[in-house]
Amino acid sequence: MLIQEEMDIQEKLRILSDAAKYDVSCSSSGVARKGKKGTIGNTLAAGICHSFAADGRCISLLKILFTNQCIHDCRYCINRRSNDVVRTRFTPEEVCTLTIEFYRRNYIEGLFLSSGILHSPDYTMEQIYETLYRLRNEYHFNGYVHVKAIPGADPGLVERVGFLTDRMSVNLELPTAEGLRRLAPGKTREKILMPMRQIQRGIAAQNLRALSDSKGSGGNVRRHLQDSSQTGRNFQNQWWDHQRQSAGTLDIRNRPSAGKREIGMADTIAHPGRNVWTSFQSQNRRFFVPAGQSTQIIVGATPESDYHMIRVAEALYQNYDLKRVFYSAFVRVNDDSLLPELPGGPPLLREHRLYQADWLLRFYGFGAEELLSEEKPNFNILLDPKCDWALRHLEWFPVEVNRADYGTLLRVPGLGVKSARRILAARKSAALDFPDLKKLGVVLKRAMYFLTCSGKMMVPVRMDENFITSQLIGVEHGKVWDIENHDSYRQLSLFDDCQVTALVSREDTVSALTGTL
Amino acid sequence: MTVFVCGQEVEEIWCGIYDAWMSRLGHENVRIEPEGRDRELFCEYREVAAEEWKAEKVTKSIRKKLSEELYEVVYRAALSEDADRADKIYRFLIYAFAMGTNVMDQLQIPAVYEVFRMTRYLSREYSHVIEFARFSRMEEGVLLSRIKPKNDVLVLVSMHFADRLSGENWILYDCKRKKAAVHQADRGWIIVRADSAQWQERLNKKTDEETYEGLWRTFHKAIAITQRTNLKCQQNMLPLRFRPYMTEFNKV
After folding, report:
1. How far B72 CA lies from chain A's nearest CA (Å)?
2. Per DSSP, which regions of chain B are E strands?
3. Does B146 touch chain A (CB under 8 A)?
4. What SS3 state is found at B151?
5. Integer Cα distance of B179 and A267 in angstroms
6. How far is residue A110's CA from residue B105's CA, in Å, rounded to a whole number?
7. Strand pairing report for A144-148 and A167-169
8. What is the distance between the alpha carbons of residues B212 and A424, in angstroms, rounded to a whole number?
9. In whole angstroms, what is the distance from residue A385 CA to residue A457 CA?
10. Is A90 left (phi over 0), alpha (psi -120 to 50) or beta?
11. How many angstroms away from the CA of B238 is the closest CA of chain A?
12. Would you call A506 exposed, middle or buried from its count of C-beta atoms within 10 A (0-12, 13-18, 19+)?
């Protein structure tokens, strides 16, 4: 394959960003680093999106491939060996200059560097290392960097890159080893998981070092870790104890991994709004992958169900301590007989539901088993996963706002991490009512069916699955039914499925016409 | 009812609050209003003289008797675009001094909620501005960015960029309020009035940016996946009002 190196930089950028765009991850979050004299840039824990492309996805990093030349022949990939596309590559200087000049103009938050495999994994990783080394040490770039670890590259190289970057990721691509074998013949599950494990161990070792180091930021870190692991665990325990006591039937296997991991490890699952990595910053030391690692799964290229996907994601969060799993709706870029036809375009709704479920796993203390099961392997199209779960567990509702604990509040549809925390803070001084909840940011159109304030519901609601489902679906479709003018009965219309079993009698017709009952 | 009329700058708001509070007329008998409002019958109007010592006394007592965090909250509220912010901060401070430092938790109280709402709006706009501000390089190597925020976030935005681009000379120009933050490399920054003709001439100088602006437009276009085009989503995330000041949406 001929690699065109003597190409206009504009054309190179067009080709290599176009080839990189199917990678989803664009977050610049997870590490807070102040600016330093003599360098350019800082990072914010929350990350910054600098622009939005025409597909509505955020642009926060300069997302490019180092080269779109590749030795692999993955069926789904635009850069596969057998495709006839123009091949080119950047030089390390070009990447550095672009990054610095874009950053200076506030176009981007940093660099996202991925690559096709040029010659060999080691050679590619070396090129990436050289680029990052120059960017950090010659161009004094202090902003955010996200790189891909190339599966199969020398672990020593991966480690060296890890000290220069903020986030590292290895793409899992397909959730099963079988799918991988079929669509990506050059890759194996083991090869992908190896660098992932290495990065995880590196981060864990660093945490332990920080724990044993009692000076300076070490104390901070320890407090942070203890604090986070305890709150995370307590909250899970509470919820599950509560459920077991009240239900008595619950299977202990369903319990999320609370207590499985060692104390002191970063417990990022089910632990809202706090960040462990940020506390590792200091001015004179570089840290190993301080913003954690992430991965990506393609949705809809292979026949796996949603249940399968979130089980994989959950396992990755628990066993590999990933920061994020990204889901990428499959876009059919190659005409290949092994790839599914997608007449309706990429499965965007499915991707959306998976992200919603992902948040439930990470911040709301849900387990994958609770959301889906072998019998019900896919998400509801009309309802978000949390509403769906709540409707199947109406026995837990309604929840009393002024007394329920944090874990229980988080399970209420329409309540999020922020609003649940605000409720905890606000109810210390006064009993809350529905108008107050609205001020606290609770989405009442969903939450109203599941909450009581001082023992009262917002409107009289029948705790009936069908009734609430139809209401919520109505909400979702924007058909707002003014429930306050009716009591808990459902309005009849010609076209909805009211499940009317009795035949309409003559008296019914007369009373409907005259309005007398 | 006695109405205290004060200016819109942060210090003037502190002075208004000081005068209203120290008039000893009772909180329910006083009100703070911005200049230029229609006057009402049966109200006594007093002009607030802006003096440094008043502002200092107010900020000092908030920071000492309440907390630094609450001072930051009211400072941000004072930068809001809400015309009644002075009076709203006044009502809030009555509660704050009565209830202590965790008053921000009690959003069910209308006065607290108003301040919360103002600061939330301001913080959201602040994060939008640090996302969407675009610099371009003028001839002498100075980076220039024009912003037009609804709330007066220039100070906050400048703090952000002073940390981020500490080694650059840059100017952030607020088109709405006609003031600018000027940063000198490795020194610091100041806010200056920029409504003079000299300033306007300087701001309208041509920038020498074709290469990188072109590259950025190319990138912005190439990174979108055509099969997923969703302009509505794009507009939700990036409102139209920011676009006239953004490189990638300016047609060449």
Report:
1. 19
2. 2-6, 30-34, 44-47, 136-137, 143-147, 170-174, 179-184, 188-193
3. no
4. coil
5. 47
6. 36
7. parallel
8. 49
9. 23
10. beta
11. 7
12. exposed
Q: Are A350 and A379 in contact (CB under 8 A)?
A: yes
Instruction: Name the token pair of A153.
Output: 């590259």
Q: Are A57 and B228 inside 8 Å of each other by CB? A: yes
Residue pair A295/A196 in contact (Cβ under 8 Å)? The answer is yes
Instruction: Burial-class residue B210 by CB neighbours within 10 Å (0-12, 13-18, 19+).
Output: exposed
Task: Give whole-number Cα distances, A262 to A218, A266, A275, A362, A402, in Å.
Answer: 19, 9, 18, 18, 34
Each residue of A101-147: pLDDT tens digit? 999 999 999 999 999 998 899 999 999 999 999 999 999 999 999 99
Rounded CA separation A421/A12 (Å)? 48
Q: Which of residues 221-250 of B touch A (CB under 8 A)?
A: 221-234, 236-238, 246-248
Is the overall model pTM greater than 0.80, yes or no? yes
* Interface touch A54/B238, C-beta < 8 Å: no
Map out the domains of chain A as residue ranges.
1-169, 172-379, 381-485
Q: What is the DSSP letter of A77?
A: -
Both tokens assigned to A348:
């965007």
Tell how many helices (H) and how many strands (E) occur in chain A.
17, 12
d(CA A450, CA B218): 49
What is the number of other CB atoms lying within 10 angstroms of the CB of residue A211? 15
* Res A244: pLDDT: 41
Asked if residue A154 has pLDDT above 80, the reply is yes
Q: Which two tokens stand for residue B41?
A: 């019958």
The beta-carbon neighbor of B227 closest among A58, A346, A422 is: A346
User: What do you get for the CA distance between the two ends of chain B, in Å?
Assistant: 57
H or E stretch covering A3: strand A3-4
Q: What is the pLDDT of residue A282?
A: 39
Strands A58-59 and A144-148: unpaired
CA dihedral angle for residue A408, residue A410, residue A415, residue A421, rounded to 10 degrees: 100
Contact A52 B237 (CB under 8 A): yes
Buried residues in A219-257 as b, exposed as e (16+ CB within 10 A):
eebbebbeebbebbbebbeebbeebeeeeeeeeeeebbb
Phi first, then psi, for residue B136 (nearest 5°) are -135, 155
Gap between the Cα atoms of A50 and B41, Å rounded: 51
Chain B nearest C-alpha distance from A37 (Å): 7
Residue pLDDT, tens place only, A448-477: 999 999 999 988 888 888 888 888 887 655
Among candidates A59, A98, A348 on the partner chain, residue whose Cβ is nearest the Cβ of B228: A348
Element (H, E) at A128: helix A121-137
Which residues, 6+ apart, have CB-to-CB distance to A224 below 8 Å?
Answer: A274, A276, A279
- Tokens at residue A517, please? 């009952």
CA of A176 to nearest chain B CA: how many angstroms apart?
25
Q: ∠B134-B140-B144 over CA atoms, to 5°? A: 20
